[in-house]
Amino acid sequence: MKIYSEKSKEIIISFAQDGNFRSTIPNIKIDGRDIAQVCHAKLLGVTISQDLTWNKHVDNIVKKAGKRLYMLYQLKRAGITQKDLVSAYVSVVRPVLQYACPVWHTNLPQYLSDSIEVIKRALKCIFPGLGYAEILRRVNLDTLNVRRDSICQHIKYNVRQQNVYPLPVTRTNRFRNSCIPWALYNCQ
Length: 188
Known about the structure:
Strand 2 and strand 3 form a beta hairpin. Strands 1-4 form a two-stranded parallel sheet. A two-stranded antiparallel sheet has the order 2-3. Strands 5-6 form a two-stranded antiparallel ribbon. It has helices spanning 55-77, 82-98, 101-104, 110-116, 121-126, 132-139, 144-153, 155-158, 173-176, 179-187, and strands at residues 9-11, 29-30, 33-34, 36-38, 40-43, 46-49. Helix content is 49%, strand content 10%.
């Protein structure tokens, strides 16, 4: 396998409060070229930060979903029915907010989960004058948080039940709530 130095990035995982640790770590070189050190990188659509928080990822998906809301406004102006607008929301906006959620949702603080729910304005665009809970009840949808929880629960059925995997020793909640330990603790 050939590694391309111009496409490669180095991300140093650290929980240090100051950024001075970077100067003590030598740069990685491939074919005589330094690999760029970055604070966050996108890997298969998921933004990973050097401190393993999901703030940057949540900002990215909310921004991306917000751009897709424009389509809903245009469809509404064109006179599309509410049923079709809900279908457009479910098929175009909501997947952006759920993509790869088994990786990041189980370790998401409440304030970030709440910032994802800001996209409720999409449904308020479709049903003006109604509250978010009433809209969800009317169209038979769950909140985004409940939906992500149910997607994460499907991991249980994808892990082979006949194999018993050793549970990792977890010293911190951050690690225990990350994707693989969470699945192992909740699936066996």
